[in-house]
Structure formats: C-alpha cells, structure tokens
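Example 9 (inverse folding). The structure is encoded as follows.
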C-alpha cells in the first residue's frame, strides 16, 4: 500500500514537471518534419535579424572609420571601393586630440567605478548583513530615490558642486564633480543588497564565532563570494560613465578635462566625416571590450539570481 502511494506521487511529480517544461509545442509536435522545418526557419530569421540589428551598426562604423569621406557618402554599404584609408585613425588620434579626451574618459570611468563599487558594496553589506534597527527605513529611503527624475536633481547637484559644504571650495572642472554624484547610485546598492541577501548566513556565523569582526567578514568572506555581482556593477558603472553627456558638460566646462562624450559633438562641425567616424570608432573600443570580457555574467544573469549555498 505504501509502495503504491509512493509510485503515484512519483508519477504525479513527473507529470507536473513535464507540464512545467512544456512550451507552445510538445515533443511529439517537434518531431514532425513540417513543424521542425518551420521552427528552424524561424530561428534562422530571428538569429540573422538580431545579428544585423546588433552588430550591423558597429561593423558599419568600423568599416566607415577607415573609408574616405566620398566613398562613405556615395557608396555607404560597399566595402572600400577605392581602398582603405588607415590615416583616418592616426588623424583622429593626434590632430583631433582624441588621445587626450580618451585619457580623460578613462580617468572619469575609473573614478566612477571605484566610488560606485565602494558605496554599493558597503551600503549593501550594511543593509543586508549587519542589519541595524533602522535598516528598513534606509532601504525604503534608497528605493524612494529611484522614483526621482534625474533632471530634477540637476540644479541641486550643480549648486552643491559649486558651493560644497565643509570644504567651501568649488569642485567645478575637477573630476570629483563627476565621481561623487555617481557614487550615490540607488540601483547598484539595491542590486548588491539583493545578492548579499542570498549569501549563506552559516558562513557569517562561523566567522563571527571564530572572532572575525564586521570589517574582516566583509573583506575576507563577503567580497570574495561576490565576484559575479561586482563584475555586473563594474560594467554598469563604467558604461554609464563612458556615455554620460549632460552632467560632465555642466561641471567640466574646460575642454582640457572633458571626456569623449562631450568633446566629440563639439568637434563634429570642425572635422571631416571620415576622421569623425574614426574618432567614434575609437570611442567604442572600451564598451565593446567590456561586454566581450563580461558577456557570460550578462548572458547567465549572474549576480541577479543569488549565490550558491553550500
């Protein structure tokens, strides 16, 4: 009697699993030749469409970066009808001073990354692991800031940078004016907090039993277990700093310290089309490289699903 009951339960669980795994088409329908051929055709069309929509603009920009202006205007989709002009890259790098603006962008992105990761990890650690009594209030306050439009904060932030408290010295034309506001990113804090919520508490309790303090737990246990989310936050921070235009334009009026996102539109009217496209291609190197390095984290949604408990 007991064996029959267990057998029925196993069959019921198997049927439920089969129903959960069943999609629009069943396995029997997928085995049919006509259905299989039509599904293959749909997959090919979708794959080609995604490749054209995703890689098409990047590949065209790479082609146009080493193509003379007349060829780009007259034959925009032909592959170098009159040869390749490699001089566009050197002209953009040296004569348009893309090298200087590239370095400025790297400095801004590196500082923004450092401060965003620092604030996100420490705030997420405090809200998720330390959990003071007022943690729910802080959590709601951080969440509430996400509902404030960024445009509304431009004037208060600019006035704060112009007349900062305590130090009393204007931060205009300094990278601190970009780094400090970027550090207060509510999305990153909540993202890291959610990841920390799924870390195994048994490890923390064992470390505390061995005499580890809050800082030791954070540095030696939490951070090594949080590499996936740190990678995701790092990419978000660097790409956001790389493409930001309005805020650097306001707080960095001096062209000598402006990033690529600000200087490229400014020099467009004074630069040949082929040289300008070469400058645009150079400016896309870092974001593309970052995606290639961290693509597995995005494709597997690492950092958003929590840690593996063991």
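The amino acid assigned to each position is listed next.
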């Amino acid at each position: 009697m007991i064996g029959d009951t267990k057998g029925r339960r196993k069959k019921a669980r198997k049927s439920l699993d089969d129903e959960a795994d069943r999609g629009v088409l069943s396995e029997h329908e997928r085995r049919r030749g006509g259905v299989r051929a039509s599904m293959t055709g749909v997959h090919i069309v979708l794959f080609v469409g995604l490749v054209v929509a995703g890689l098409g603009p990047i590949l065209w920009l790479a082609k146009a970066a080493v193509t003379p202006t007349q060829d780009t205007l007259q034959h925009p989709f032909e592959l170098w009808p009159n040869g390749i002009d490699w001089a566009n890259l050197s002209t953009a790098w040296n004569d348009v001073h893309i090298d200087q603006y590239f370095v400025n962008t790297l400095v801004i992105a590196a500082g923004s990354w450092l401060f965003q990761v620092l604030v996100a990890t420490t705030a997420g650690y405090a809200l998720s692991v330390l959990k003071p009594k007022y943690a729910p209030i802080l959590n709601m306050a951080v969440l509430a800031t996400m509902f404030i439009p960024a445009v509304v904060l431009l004037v208060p932030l600019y006035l704060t940078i112009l007349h900062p408290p305590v130090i009393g010295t204007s931060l205009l034309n300094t990278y601190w004016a970009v780094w400090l506001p970027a550090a207060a990113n509510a999305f990153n804090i909540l993202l890291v907090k959610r990841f920390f919520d799924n870390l195994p508490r048994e490890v923390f309790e064992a470390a505390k039993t061995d005499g580890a303090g809050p800082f030791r737990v954070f540095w030696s246990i939490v951070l090594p277990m949080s590499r996936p989310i740190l990678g995701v936050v790092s990419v978000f921070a660097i790409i956001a700093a790389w493409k930001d235009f309005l805020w650097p334009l306001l707080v960095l009026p001096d062209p000598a310290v402006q990033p690529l996102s600000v200087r490229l539109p400014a020099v467009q009217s004074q630069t040949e089309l082929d040289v300008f496209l070469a400058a645009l291609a150079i400016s896309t190197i870092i974001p593309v490289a970052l995606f290639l390095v961290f693509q597995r984290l995005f494709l597997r949604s690492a950092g958003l699903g929590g840690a593996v408990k063991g």
